[in-house]
Amino acid sequence: MIQTVLGKISPTEFGICAAHEHLSIDLSRIKKDPDTILDDEEGMIEELEDFYRLGGRSLVELTNDGMGRDVLRLKRLSEATGVHIITCTGFYKDPFIPVYAQGWSSEQFAAHFIKEATEGIADTGILPGVIGEVGTSHNEIKPIERELLIGAALAGVSSGLPVSTHTTLGTLGYEQVQLLTEHGLAPEQIIIGHQDLNANKDEVLAVLETGAYIAFDTIGKINYRPDEDRVEFLLDFIKRGFEKQILLSADLTRKTHWKKHGGPGYGLVLEDFIPRLRTAGVSQELLDLFLLENPAKAFSKRER
Predict the structure, then answer these.
(1) Is the peptide bond between 275 and the residue preceding it cis, with omega within 30 degrees of 0?
(2) Are 221 and 251 in contact, with CB atoms under 8 Å apart?
(3) What is the dihedral of CA 221, 223, 191, 214, to 10 degrees?
(4) Which of 206, 148, 205, 203 is nearest to 170 (CA)?
(5) Which of 76, 86, 120, 230 falls between 20 and 30 A from 114, CA-CA?
(6) Where are the domains of the chain?
(7) Which residue numbers in the chain have pLDDT < 50?
(8) How far apart are CA 235 and CA 231, in angstroms?
């Protein structure tokens, strides 16, 4: 089963999924940029309704405590739009970890995540469906990030929830898998994020060869990398037989990413990238894997 903010659903109910997104977020404490605050609830509803119109039915919302998580708002959004929303437990990376948790050990991180996964977030009764996004810095795993990742692994083993990660510019994905699996997490419970930002194909292939999922989840962010390069990598991964390990999304985090403000909106993958893949010869069967079957498997809770 898959845990959403409105309760458990079956994988067959999940539908077309955006595997790494943010609806309600505030990164301004660190970034000092008001564009990184999404707090317009009516605007969120409009954006989600557009996503639904384009065929989207589920969205994994990876805004955790320290990034502006608001699970009651996510519940209202799901009720208003019919989009299945998964919320998360976890912390992001240094320096976004909340002050109260900055000195924690892996065991403390794990205990906190397990408590939210089993008892609910604060006093809302809402359960997370994923541990994430937990991350590392650019080409560096800081000591607190190491403890955080180990804690996420321990919590994933205990709870059965998948772990979704942040890699800064796609770096250290393989090292993340090694750290998580060393502490008992199965590769099929791991989603390594932002792998479309890494232009080093060998490093991404190393992640795929572990059996973990990779997220091509910054689609449309051509200031980092052109989408043509993303398509080229995906075509190669398909040829190599890794099509069952790929998830797609756009990772919107700014006001200027919304259609309301002139951006592409949460339907970017469906409206622009999927047609690109079709033109490149990717079959509907494979597109269904990326959008439907892979996320339904990746976000299904492992029963203990």
Answers:
(1) no
(2) yes
(3) 90
(4) 203
(5) 76
(6) 2-298
(7) none
(8) 6
- Amino acid symbol at 25: I
Structure tokens at 303: 């029963």
Q: How far is CA 189 from CA 185, 262, 288, in A?
A: 7, 36, 20
Predicted pLDDT of residue 31? 93
Cα separation, 266 vs 252, whole angstroms: 7
DSSP calls for 85-143:
EE-EES---TTTS-GGGTT--HHHHHHHHHHHHHH-STTS-PPPSEEEEEEEBTTB--H
pLDDT of the residue at 304: 66
Dihedral sign for Cα atoms in the order 52, 54, 60, 66: negative
- What does DSSP say about strands 190-192 and 163-167: parallel, antiparallel, or unpaired? parallel
Phi-psi region of 263 (alpha: psi -120 to 50; beta: other; left: phi over 0): beta
Task: List, for residues 76-125, the tens digit of each pLDDT value.
Answer: 999 999 999 999 999 999 999 999 999 999 999 999 999 999 999 999 99
